[in-house]
Amino acid sequence: MMASRNRPEETVARVDRLTMAFGDTVVQRDLDFEIVPGTIFAIMGPSGCGKSTLLRHMVGLHEPAAGRVFLGGENFWGLEQHDRNRLLQQAGVLFQGGALWSSMTVAENVALPLELFTDRSPELIADQVAFKLALVGLAGASDVYPAALSGGMRKRAGLARALAMDPRVLFLDEPSAGLDPLSARRLDTLILRLRATLGVTVVMVTHELESLFAIADDSLYLDPETKTAIARGAPRDLQKQSEHDQVREFLNTRL
User: Fold this and answer.
1) Contact predicate 219/42, CB 8 Å
2) ABC transporter domain: from which residue to which, for each copy (predicted)?
C-alpha cells in the first residue's frame, strides 16, 4: 500500500485503501493516494488495468468493494445522496466520447447543468455558457449540434460543459483518445491554460505518453499483474528512476 502524504483537508481528492471489484473479480486493491490542489494528476497503466474504473469510483458512478473516496475532505460514499450530489457539483467530468446530447446544441449542452442545479436566470446562464465556450475556443459554435463538430471540437464542448459549474476539480477520461496528434497537442495546451486561468485541479486517465510528459505533474501507475498501484510520481522521474521494470518499459514505449 502506498502511504498518503497529506491530510484530507489539504487535498482535493483522496482514495483510502480502495478495492474495486466486479462480483468476485478484483480489478485493483489497496489503492491509497491523494491529489493536492492545482496539480494535473495522471492515472496511467496498460489497457485493462482499471484506469477508467478508478475514475468512475472517484466521480460517484461505482461504489467501492472496500475503502473510501474523499472529495474535498468528505467521505463521499459515507454521505446521504443529497450530500453526494452537493459534492459532485464541485467536480466536472469529461467522458471519453464527450457524452454530449445529440438533440441539443452545444450551448444547450453546456447550459444543462446550470439549469438543473442552480436557480440562475436564463440571462445569467447564457452569459456563463458564452464565457465557458470562449474559454475552450468554441465561441462561434453555440448553435451547432454535436454531429457537426470535429472530434477535437466535441472534446472541447464536453470540457466546456464540465466547467459549467465552476468545479474545483476536473476529471478527464482519456481526453486525447481518437484525436490526431495536432488536435491532441492543442487539447493539452488548453488543459494547461485552464489550470493556469481557473486554478482548477485536473485528474486525468490516459495511456497517451505525449500527454503524460507534456502536462502531468504527478501520476499513479496501476499494475494489472499485482492489481494495485506500484508507482507514484512525476512521469519523467518514473521513466528514468522507477524501481519497477514494467513502469519504465511502459513510459519508454513508442519514444
Assistant:
1) yes
2) 13-249
* Alpha-carbon dihedral angle through residues 228, 231, 232, 233, given to the nearest 10 degrees: -160
| pLDDT tens digits, one per residue of 144-181 | 999 999 988 999 999 999 999 999 999 999 998 888 99
Question: 71 - beta bridge partners?
Answer: 13, 74
> Is the Cα dihedral 106, 109, 113, 118 positive or negative?
positive
Question: What distance in Å separates the CA atoms of residue 15 and residue 27, rounded to the nearest whole number?
Answer: 15
Question: Lowest mean pLDDT: which of 6-20, 89-103, 134-148, 190-204?
Answer: 6-20
Residue matched to cell numbers 489503492: 31
What SS3 class is residue 95? coil
Determine whether domain 1-90+172-255 maps to CATH 3.40.50.300.
Answer: yes
User: pLDDT digit string (tens) for 22-43?
Assistant: 999 999 999 999 999 999 999 9
Strand partners for 78? none
Backbone dihedral region for residue 67 (phi beyond 0: left; psi -120 to 50: alpha; all else: beta): left
Residue ranges of the domains in the chain?
A: 1-90+172-255, 96-166
Tell me the average pLDDT of the chain. Answer: 91
Cβ neighbours around 110 below 10 Å, total: 29
Q: How far is CA 246 from CA 52, 179, 219, in A?
A: 20, 26, 15
For residue 115, what are the CA distances in angstroms to 159, 197, 202? 17, 25, 24
CB-based burial label for 24 (10 Å; 0-12, 13-18, 19+): exposed
The widest CA-to-CA distance across the chain, in whole angstroms, is: 56
